[in-house]
Each structure stands twice: as C-alpha cells, then as structure tokens.
TrEMBL record:
Pfam families: KDZ. It comes from the Eukaryota. This is CxC2-like cysteine cluster KDZ transposase-associated domain-containing protein. It comes from Polyporus arcularius HHB13444.
Length: 320
C-alpha cells in the first residue's frame, strides 16, 4: 500500500491531502498532476466538463462487523490516512449511533435505503455495512471516503464520506455526484453539514455540488425526479450512467464473511489493503480493454481523429 501510493519512495502530490498512504485514482482531473496549463480558464459552456469531478455514493450492507467481545482499543494502523473516515469525529457520535440503529431512510417514492430485506438481518452486528463515495468515471475508491454504518444508511454519514472525497477534489471547479436517493439527500445538506461540524472550507463546494440519480435507480423515483435529477438531461454529464459504484461492491462483498469476524482495527486494515489493491489493478488494466473488442485499437484512434476533425469543421452551435 505504501509502495503503490508512492509514500515510501518519497513521492508527494500537490492538491491532495499529504498524509494519505493509499493509492487513489490518477485518471480523475488533478491540478498539478494531469491537467493542462490554463485548464481553469476553459469556457464553462464548452469544455469545462472535462475537468469536473464525477462522484458516486452508495451504501453496502455486506461489509459488516459482528458484535462480539473484542479489543475496543484495536485501531487501524492507517488511521485517517487510509480509506476510512472517522465517525467518532461527528459531534454527537454516540447519540447518532443509538438513534440510527435499524432506522430506515425512505425516498420520494418509498424506495428504502437501508433495504432491510429481512427482519433481523442486522442483529448481532456492531457495523451493519459501509457507505462510500467513489469515482464514478473509473470506479475507484477515494481516500477517507468510506464510512462505517452503525445502523442505517444515514445522510450525515454520507456527508462525512463526501467530505473525505472533496478534500482530494477541492481544487477543481465543478463537482457532480450520483446517489440512488439523491433527491432526498439534497434536502438540508447544508444544515447537516453545519450540525455535523464537517470541514467549513468545503461548504462552498457543497453548495455548488450537483446531486443526481443513477440511471437505473432513477426508475424507482417519481416522474418529477426522473426529469429534475436525470444525468442525461444534465449539462456536461454526457453518457455517465452513475452506477459505477455497484461493480465495486460486487467484488468486495466477497470480503464480508471474513472481515466481519475481525476486530475493528484489523478489519479496517484488511479493507484498506483491498480497496487500495482494487484501485491499483484498475489502473494496471483499464488501458488494455479497447471500447470495442471487434475493432483493433489503432482503427479506433483513426475513427476518433476523423470524428474530431469533423466536429471542428462543423458550424452548429453545440455546447456541453
Ligand atoms: Zn477516477
Ligand atoms: Zn426522488
């Protein structure tokens, strides 16, 4: 983990929390690392979308932790330098925990966030799962953007995960986040942010954050939400479907049966290692798969170049 993040080789990146020791997404826009000079001067109506952050939030109820006699002082070696945000930082942590047990958040159309499929599913658990804010373009975890759920998938805990992701992305100018209950989540977000004493300097970003619904989950919402929060009607969102957080869970659910038996610190260390490895393997392999398996990549490059040429010669008043 330390080697892959570059930490033990003395590599330090600009515009990112310096003490993070896990491997983060290198493909998302990152001033000082992968953006051209003068990117911030781009016309917002034309190509500013190239430099926007696309995030996806979702809860997972397979990465649990059982309630049993263990060492309460067992802490993760990574601490806040890994993928987990610290729920104990919330001012009313204990009250939040007791109040949240078994609570279900409902949305505009009765879609239940906790998805408490079976009565008693969450009995004998300290942690019922996690909520994460991920990069929805490349499917990578953000540092400090995974938060344990002591009960239901409460919005204050999603806020905490969001604050972790925004710490890495605060130097950008546009942010977009999909969440399967985005319409309800957006209500009172600034009130919760203040009550949760989350980083004050991120408030202007939260004010400008565009929260949308993922394309498939959107169908469980009212008609008005399907228009107002639709990715496909949002300027700059392109063909983003907003569901990229789901494949992450499909793989990591397999870790649930082993990590749910661990003590708190060991569980976090194991999951930190898995999430960091996931990000690493994503970067190793994402360039190998061409968009179409039937077409050699060199042909695709030619197609893209010819499309780009035809666009520049077009007279239409296309905007993002
Ligand atoms: Zn990314
Ligand atoms: Zn809705």
């Amino acid at each position: 983990m330390l080697k892959r993040s570059g930490w033990c080789h003395g590599v330090r990146y600009p515009n990112s929390p310096e003490d993070v020791i896990v491997f983060r997404c290198l493909c998302c826009p990152w001033p000082g690392v992968n953006l051209p000079h003068g990117w911030e001067l781009t016309d917002p109506r034309l190509s500013r979308y190239l430099y926007a952050a696309y995030l996806g939030a979702d809860g997972n109820h397979s990465l649990q932790k059982k309630a049993k006699k263990d060492d309460p002082t067992d802490r993760s070696f990574a601490g806040k330098r890994g993928f987990f945000g610290d729920i104990r930082e919330l001012p009313k942590y204990k009250e939040t925990v007791s109040k949240e047990q078994g609570k279900i958040v409902e949305t505009c159309s009765g879609f239940k966030v906790t998805r408490s499929q079976k009565v008693g599913k969450f009995r004998f658990l300290d942690i019922t799962g996690v909520v994460a804010v991920t990069c929805t373009r490349h499917g990578c975890f953000w540092p400090r953007a995974v938060v344990d759920l002591p009960g239901g998938e409460q919005f204050l805990l999603v806020d905490l995960a969001l604050s972790g992701a925004l710490e890495c992305l605060k130097s950008l100018l546009e942010w977009l986040m999909t969440y399967d209950v985005g319409c309800s989540y957006l209500k009172n977000i600034l009130v919760r942010w203040k009550e949760g004493k989350l980083p004050h300097h991120l408030e202007p970003i939260v004010k400008r954050l565009r929260v949308l619904l993922p394309q498939l989950h959107m169908l469980a919402h009212k008609d008005s939400c399907q228009t107002e929060f639709a990715v496909c009607y949002t300027s700059g969102a392109g063909h983003t479907n907003g569901e990229a957080v789901e494949p992450l869970w499909a793989t990591h659910n397999q870790a649930g049966p082993s990590t749910r038996e661990m003590n708190g610190g060991a569980r976090h260390d194991a999951l930190n290692d898995m999430f960091s490895f996931w990000n690493w393997v994503k970067h190793e392999t994402m360039g190998e798969l061409p968009p179409s398996r039937d077409q050699p990549r060199s042909d695709l490059v030619q197609v893209n170049i010819s499309r780009a040429n035809s666009r520049t010669s077009c007279d239409c008043s296309w905007t993002s």
